[in-house]
Structures are given as structure tokens and as C-alpha cells.
Amino acid sequence: MYAIGIDIGGMSIKAGLVDGNGQIVCSNRSVTDKNQEQSLKNIISQIEDLLSEKSVSVKDIKGIGIGCPGLISSEEGVVDHNSNMKWENFHIVDLLKERFDTVIKLSNDANVAALGETIYGAAKNYQNVVMLTLGTGVGGGIIIDNKIYEGGYSKGAELGHMVIVKGGEKCGCGRRGCLEAYASATGLIRMTKKEMQKNSKSIMWDYVNGDIDKVGGKTAFECSKQGDVSAKKVVRKFVGYLAEGIINFANIFRPEAFIIGGGVSAQGDYLIDKLKKYCEKFNYGYKNAPKPEIVTATLGNDAGIIGAAALVL
Amino acid sequence: MYAIGIDIGGMSIKAGLVDGNGQIVCSNRSVTDKNQEQSLKNIISQIEDLLSEKSVSVKDIKGIGIGCPGLISSEEGVVDHNSNMKWENFHIVDLLKERFDTVIKLSNDANVAALGETIYGAAKNYQNVVMLTLGTGVGGGIIIDNKIYEGGYSKGAELGHMVIVKGGEKCGCGRRGCLEAYASATGLIRMTKKEMQKNSKSIMWDYVNGDIDKVGGKTAFECSKQGDVSAKKVVRKFVGYLAEGIINFANIFRPEAFIIGGGVSAQGDYLIDKLKKYCEKFNYGYKNAPKPEIVTATLGNDAGIIGAAALVL
After folding, report:
1. Beta sheet of B138-144, edge-to-edge order
2. pLDDT tens digits for range B3-33
3. How many CB atoms lie under 10 A from the CB of residue B53?
4. What is the residue-wise DSSP string for B284-311?
5. Model ipTM?
6. Rounded to a whole number, what is the distance in Å from the CA of A195 to chain B's nearest CA?
7. Which residue of B149, B168, B253 is in closest CB contact with A152?
8. Which of A106, B55, B89, B170 could make a disulfide contact with A66, Cβ separation 3.0–4.6 Å?
9. What is the H or E stretch that residue B68 is in?
10. Rounded distance between C-alpha atoms, residue A188 and residue A138, angstroms
């Protein structure tokens, strides 16, 4: 049985026909249009193209799942607000239902990615999972018994906005010291630059050809692998912040596994081993409770389509 | 329809017959015995006494609910470990089932209190609630759709052990900077003493007759009400830590309400108004999401019995 997954992003809308094993059979994409009506038309065309490409009718699919960034009312099927795309009060589920007579579900993109990774990806052996996506910000997804837990009004699971350093670095949300301000790529880059400014001899300067504006999420990690003392210090700090967040969530949810996604997760075991070591030191919060596994996301850019399809599969 | 609620504490075991409106019809208590067999015998006698007192048979009750501190495996009905009572691997549910042929459920005491307050107490108009009990430590209870959320293996909801000040005050759990290290009565007393040592003219010294060992959870609050600058500072700090914890949980769970329980909650509106003011300043984490209510617990010492009965009512 197939389902369609729609992965809405700030730049593009990706759609895919997904089979019961979570494999993408075929896919397409359109450019995200700030005009909601145009984006709706694009999505309808994309779905029709997928169905005709595989000669599948709407009756033959289990439904359509949609993942979208921003403020979502999942029960109502509405994108309340997305500042990046300038969408407001977009009743996407009802509008699509006018065209397609099937089950249609909507959730936040971070939740959807977590669901995809739990059902078909990195955590497919687990039912209770917390996913942290480390990118510009820190996205969160909570899976309880193989289902997304969105929090009240589908407005919870904002895991990046947990203060771990009261009075610390400013966060975009208006508070200070959020996990996002430290454990995101943005936080990592800030810490890297700060450390470089303290040590003009660090090989991180060579790595960016002397241009501090070229510092990225890889800079400290790659130079740390080469033994650079300042870079190692940055990685150690970054791991410490992220691990404190993980232990906090372990105490709250005691999941079977954590999934680390986003650009920084490309560091793989070099990051995960350090995280585990830090968490072990503090018994993952509680020495008498089972220790969660920590894994990196495996679905990559496909997590959005597959996770969206998993909403209805 | 009646249910029996058993509230196990370090000092005493309280049992009550509770009606469908969450009212305690009759109750009794025994001294908690470190010998598990003896405590079991006491509980059985207590239940039998309650039933005979109201001429109710086991068939006429909906079941028996038990709240117990320590490490609980709720599905298995086992008290894994309680360091205070020296209990280990106490299969309390199975042992009681040998005597009483009815539904018997067990959960952690903090969870049970949260359930009682949600169904019959301070938050009875809400279905999604987070309760923080401020005592020696900070206990946590999470209610989702009127049911206890215990976390994986029934070992989550350890809300007091969320680091909010990385590298901060030492916590009993082995980490530094946990909410419990600041927002408990213990944390409040430590902050009060520290502030008193900085200011020998504070009226807090008079409040404790010059004996710093007499400082309690009320000292700073009562002197703050009288306008003492140092006491006000302590209260402001305490509120800040607790509010950061509340906003963190708002972002994670977006509950309809928070319940503040435990000794410190006796401060009532004097505490709650300050908490709300702090949380408002940061939009409860997220200006586009509904604001949770903050209320004080109303069931007091009865929360344990009523909440335990609510497990089966």
C-alpha cells in the first residue's frame, strides 16, 4: 500500500510516493511560493503527477501526509503561521481534501522527521524516541509508542527552547541560555569564532584561509580531528551543552533512543562517542533507569517525505 | 462507586475509601515499616478496616490504587527500590492481589498527586497538566489527556532533574544546576542563608532569632512581605529559577495548566503572581501559543489518597 508524503520547506516542496516499507518509489519537487494559492496548486499537481507516474488512483493510497515548518494546528490541519514563507492561516488539509478524497494529515516538520526516523530509519527498533535536529536552530521531535507527541494544542515539543544556562547566550525566542543557543550549528559557529579570536595560532585559521566569516559547523570538528587544541576545546564545549540537553530529556521522557539529526550529525561516531561518554559519566541522569541509545539520523533529506507518509501509513 | 487509595510515605502509610467525586469517606494510617512483609500486613489490615467500616465488599469497589515514592515499575506493580524505606523489589500489586480480587494499580507518588489534583483538585478543569511539588526536592507529575505520563519504563517525569544552570549548584543526583537545586525548599533555604550572611541587618536574622540553623522555607517569603530588601532579593531569585523551569516545560508540553504543590506553595498568590509576571515577560516561551494557567495545589495532604484512588476510579 502506498502513501504520499509532502515535505514543505522554505525553498522547495518535495513530494513522494512511498511504499509500505518506507521506500520512496518516485518523487518530484516545486519551488515554495509565498502565494499560498500557488503553492496549493503546485502541491496538487505534484500529487497528480506522482499518481499518474505509477498509474495509482487516490483510492489505492492510504492517504497523504504533510510536514511543514512553522506554527501548525495539526488537528485542524492548518498552517497557522510561517514567517519565512509568509504563510498565514493556510487551511491546507481542507483545501487538499476538496481535490483528494483520502485521509490527509499535517504535522510540524521536526515531528514528521522524528516519526520517519523512528518507523523506517535510525530508530526503527524503538518505539519511544526523542530526536534533536541540529541546524540553524535545534528542532525537536518526540515519539511515544510510535506516535508523534506534539504537546498541547500541537504547540509543544519545542525542545530547542529549554534554558540550560540561566542568563546565558541570547536566543531568538527572547530568552537567554536555550539549548538552541549552544547546541545548534549557529551556536557551534559562534563558539568556534570566539575560540579562534583567543588563539591566532589555531589551525582553524588555516582551515578557513584566514577568513573568520568562512567558519562553519565543520570547522572545529575537522580541526579537532587533526589535534588542534582550540578546536578540541570547542568540540568539548559543544558536546557538553548537547549532552546536558540529552540528559535533561532522558530524565523527562526516559526514551529508548535519541536520534541526532541535522548538518552537525554528519560527524557521526566522532560526535556520538563523545556524547555517550559525557552522558555515561552522569548515568544518563539516573543510574537505576535504563540507558537510552544515541544514534545519528539515517534518512537524510528523505526523512521529510518518508516521515510525512508515515503519518498515514 | 468507591475506590481505595493507598498513600505510602517514608513515615506513614495512609489509606482511604474514596467516592466517585474524589471525596475521602473514611481513612486510617499505619507507621511505615522497613520490613516489607510487615508493611504489607498493615496495608491489608487497613484496607479490610476501611471496607468493614462502611460495610463495603471488595466486589463493590472499582479497585485499589497505590502511590509510593522511589523507583517504581508501574506495569509490573513493583516497588523496585526505595532508599528511605529500604524496600527492594517489593511486588506489592501481586501480593495484594492474592488477598483482594480487584483491579490494583501502582504509580510514583508525585504522579499520583498530579493525577488527584487534575481530576479532583486544583486543575479539575484541565486535562493536560504539569505539576511541580516543591519540598525537600522538586517532584514532577505529567498528566496528558487526564492520564499519568510516566515516561519510558515508568522511569521518566523526573522534572526536578533538568539542568537549568549548567555547572551550577551541586544536586543530589550527581549533576550540577538541576531545577531541584534551586526551586526546592532546600534550594530556597540555601539561598536565604547565603543572602543573610551578606547582610547582617536583614530582618531575616530577627525572624530566626539570630540562629541561622532555624532558617526555613518561609523565612525569606515572610520577611519579603515585610519589605526586607535581602529577603525580596531571595524571593526574586527563587521565582526566577522556578519560572525558567516552568517556561521550559511549557515549551515541551504546552500544558493547559501548571500546579505548584509542596510546602512552598502555601505562599499562594504571593508566589503565583510573581511567577506569572516572570513567565508573561517571556510569553511563556512562545508568544503564538496558548498561555498555561498556574495554580496552587488544593488537596493538600489528601492528594496522595485521592490521587491513588483516581488510578482506578
Report:
1. B147-148, B138-144, B129-134, B257-261, B293-296
2. 999 999 999 999 999 999 999 999 999 999 9
3. 13
4. GG-TTSPPPEEEE--SGGGHHHHHHHHT
5. 0.96
6. 19
7. B253
8. A106
9. strand B61-68
10. 12
